[in-house]
Amino acid sequence: CCCCCCCQGMVTHVTDVKPLASVLTYLDEDSNTEVYQEVAGRSFMPLQFSAKPDGTKWKKEPLLQTRGSKFIKFREARIQEMPDEVPPGATPRCINVHLRGDITRSVKAGDTVCIAGIFLPEPFTGWKALKAGLLASTYLEVQEVQQLKETYDEALVSDEEVAAIEELGRQGGVYERLAASIAPEIYGMLEVKKALLLQMVGGVGREFPGSGMKLRGDIHICLMGDPGVAKSQLLKHVAKVAPRAVYTTGKGSSGVGLTAAVVRNQVTKELVLEGGALVLADKGICCIDEFDKMEEADRTNIHEVMEQQ
Fold first, then answer.
1. CA–CA separation, 205 vs 214, rounded Å?
2. Diameter of the chain measured on Cα atoms
3. What per-residue confidence (pLDDT) applies to 128?
4. For 195-254, where are the E strands, in sequence order?
């Protein structure tokens, strides 16, 4: 059975864009004609040419011609449930999605997207079918992708918003008012909110033409304080407001889990690198809670990434 559904989540893993056969072409050299075979899934059985339609035998069986076949772009991704939608006492759920055609390059790891598609079963074949029995894996055939968070480059400012920004500038006190709008439910801590605002806005990086040395324009912030002073709430608010941000904890994550991990691809059965929280938050903000609970070796790996980012 299949049904149309819409779900939202974070893209945690994407594969490379590869060609997927949709129509195969066989060339008959005896009569200089072509035979076509339509491919419905990701695997197919080549045509068996036992005899011609008129009953005579083939002098030479038709050969598969990849040059005359039709291929479409195919990509597989994994969508993970949003942290604020996870049921109590449960782990975030994941689902595999298949993208075909022009929408293959519309997502990348770390994006927060809303996907509309067809929920389909994918039965096991071969030896896996004997072990699985009546079980079947599921996937989502994507029809449309919508980005839930726009980047600063993609954001379009209307005339009304420009007028509101100019009016805000004439009133004065923009820095303090913007800082106070960060987590307004938390009283005080204006200096900390100002620092978080500067980090979200970012600075200007410099590159020296002679030596090629680069100076990053972004800053890193370390929040220290007693328990219960809303450090985690500030981090969660920044991760919610920023266009590209990931929130994680250092207590349950190792250096490998934060940077990258080696996993086996379910499609090609190859060992591939899957990005962690720091990779998903590239060109964005990575909020690491309980930073002091990490091991010293893992903290050293994070420091090396912070120097280059």
1. 7
2. 91
3. 62
4. 206-207, 214-215, 245-249
